[in-house]
């Protein structure tokens, strides 16, 4: 269960109305007083006790200084309950509400431009112009969502993807099409996503990602020269975000002179290729690792290989 924490709503509290007292969206204008913060803490802990959520997601404003001791108390309450439930839990936050590593940092409608030591998350929508259902959605291309997923995971992050059902609970047809499309790619290439860990660098390529919230559209699309890395055990996964201009994929991060990958490379294969497909031919020099991927081999994975394909490099 995921519960999203807000700073307004109905409340039953002795001596108060059924709603929280209103507060300005600018804390400097009207800083929360002790009564407001006590009530906030009690309500948040009550949600934990009643619904036992595994993820508690906070929006902005709790990063303001008056919240600091109350956030510590809430985190202690939540962690103690998780111990009683014998269940893992997490708190998501924005800005600087919690210290690094104490909770999961969230970037709304954006990404990070580099690898982060501690785990983080992007929350975004399949639509550029709304979280909920509207008549005139500006939908993102499904390939763009897929590329963002790979980029985020390579930087030690996770993608929380929103869809907006209609009032009757049905999902719009366009979104019904998008989600299985993403699922089809993951069905073939999920080993490069699920349970992986970031590598020494997140990737390489010419396309710059503008870091920070609400920067999700501030870049051109990725290309076949953009590569993202993930690891599992002694296997390095290199995901190519597009179609190379020829049959040779060049990975400069794996050149011998850079020493990011000191162990000898034993084998390079294409994830999703039919059983019995021979390993790919490759050459490693002081300039790059060059991998030859014949067109028929890449096509054997299916049309999803035109969006992103995964090389499995074993050392």
What labels would you give this structure?
21% strand, alpha/beta, 5-stranded antiparallel beta sheet, Immunoglobulin-like, 315 residues
At a glance:
By secondary structure, the chain is an alpha/beta fold.
* C-alpha-based Rg, rounded: 23 Å
Main pleated-sheet profile: 6 strands, parallel
CATH third-level topology of the domain at 203-314: Immunoglobulin-like
CATH architecture of the domain at 203-314: Sandwich
Mean pLDDT: 89
* Helix share, percent: 10-25%
What assembly state would you assign to the polypeptide chains in this entry? single chain
SS-based structural class?
A: alpha/beta
Alpha plus pi helix count: 5
Q: DSSP strand (E) fraction? A: 15-25%
Strand order in space, largest sheet? 1-2-3-4-5-6
Question: What is the molecular shape?
Answer: globular
C-alpha end-to-end distance: 40 Å
Tell me the CATH superfamily of the domain at 203-314: Golgi alpha-mannosidase II
Strand elements, count: 14
CATH class of the domain at 203-314: Mainly Beta
Order of helices and strands: EHEHEEEHEHEEEEEEEHE
Q: Which spans have pLDDT < 50 for at least 5 consecutive residues?
A: 5-16
Topology:
Layout (H helix, E strand, L loop, with lengths): L1 E4 L28 H18 L3 E4 L9 H18 L4 E4 L10 E5 L11 E6 L16 H13 L2 E6 L10 H17 L13 E2 L22 E6 L2 E6 L7 E4 L15 E4 L10 E4 L4 E4 L2 H5 L9 E6 L1
Parallel strand pairs: 1-2, 2-3, 3-4, 4-5, 5-6
Antiparallel strand pairs: 7-8, 8-9, 9-14, 10-13, 11-14, 12-13
